[in-house]
Amino acid sequence: MLTKLIPPERRTAWRGVATSLGASAVVLGVVAAIIGGLSIAAFQRTSAAALAPVPVAVPATEEPATAAQPTRALPSSVGPSSAAMAPTKRIDQAWAQRVSTRTGIPFRALLAYASAGVQVSSEQPSCGLAWNTLAAIGLTESAHGSHGGAQLLATGDTAPAIRGPALNGHGVAAIRDTDQGRWDGDAAWDRAVGPMQFIPSTWRKWGADGNADGDANPNQIDDAALSAARYLCASGSMRTAAGWRAAVFSYNHSSAYVDKIANAANRYAAQAGQ
Question: Domain total for the chain?
Answer without folding.
Answer: 1
